[in-house]
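Summary for the lay section of the report: proteins are chains of building blocks that fold into shapes. Here we show the chain for SDR family oxidoreductase and then a coded description of the shape we predicted for it.
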Amino acid sequence: MSSPVYLVLGAGPGLGLAVARRFAQGGHLATLTTRLQEEADPLARTLSEEGYAAEGLAVDLTDPDDVARVVATVGERHGRIDVLHFNPSAWREKNVFELTVPELLEDVALGAGALLPAVQAALPHLHAGARVLVTGSAAADKPSPAAPSLGVQKAAVRNLVTSLDATLRERGVRAVAVQINGVLGKEGPFSPPPIAEAMWSAVSRPDDDWTPHVAYDG
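The coded shape description reads as follows.
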């Protein structure tokens, strides 16, 4: 068998890179995807220069077909996907008097809906013991009045994880949303490294101790 594969959709230089690094430290090949190839390459190069196996790919998370294509490509290339990490969200600073229905649906399609084609494409490559990991947020319970679509995204994706976990468990695969109950920062308990450690711990649990939702309170 090849090395385990960690695939993150919606990577960035902060939390996304930190979580990828943590899984790389655990022996995974880290595959980081961003909207543009020129954004993904530096992230992968950072990990490679630190001595880890990493690669970068571009994906349009607003296009279900492209999501499916990229996930399937990774699975077929390596023969497995051990951790599928869904990390995107859309921040739209429009309050409930300004936000339109098309804008709300567009944001939810990115921050929650894109998880569906990703899991469906990954399914042939998710063996028993594989995990689906989702970055959650306190916005699911305490949405910002300035950007309510984020709260809808996070509530929706948390709900979707419940259904995914109940369905995937028949295959020996589990899904979890790690809800970050704090504001991300550069230092302290809500900085990327400790959150990355919490995500590693969440997916490393045995099935006997599994829950589809984990709260990270710092």
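Put simply, here is one thing we learned. The chain has one domain: 5-216.
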